[in-house]
Write a structure and sequence with these properties.
By secondary structure, the chain is mainly α. The protein has one domain. Helices cover 77% and strands 0% of the residues. Keywords: Membrane, Transmembrane, Transmembrane helix.
């Protein structure tokens, strides 16, 4: 039991750092803080908004991890859905000749994988697997 609590706490801390970093970077582009928008080059605004939305969902999930709430899984699932929808739209944007930065592809894949990892941690730690209940 202590191992599961430790995993949950460590997951919450790592997710909190990821959430705050995502919140800062996405809001800096949206609101053009510190001239970051110009440094980003050909950013795609709906991707930035998707990341901003996910950062808020991540913060809610951090609270869920600290409080050991089963709904944390659903919040992370919603974040993953937002990312998958945005990435699908992004691929259409690329296919239609829209401008973008190459690094966005890798960043979105990384973000989806990180979200999936935290989703699986929540699934395991909060006994949401039907055969384990």
């Amino acid at each position: 039991m202590k191992k599961r609590k430790m995993t949950t706490t460590v997951s919450a801390i790592i997710l909190a750092v990821f959430a705050v970093l995502t919140l800062f970077l996405s809001s800096a582009v949206i609101f053009d803080w510190f001239g970051i928008r110009a440094k980003e080059g050909n950013y795609v605004l709906f991707i930035v908004w998707a990341n901003f939305t996910c950062s808020l969902l991540y913060l809610i999930a951090v609270y869920g991890f600290f409080k050991s709430r089963k709904w944390t899984f659903w919040v992370l699932l919603a974040a993953l859905a937002v990312l998958i929808i945005a990435f699908t739209r992004f691929l259409l944007h690329i296919d239609n000749g829209g401008l973008y930065e190459e690094k966005t592809i890798g960043a979105m894949i990384f973000r989806m994988l990180v979200t999936l990892i935290f989703l699986l941690i929540a699934l395991r730690n909060f006994n949401l697997l039907s055969w384990r209940n």
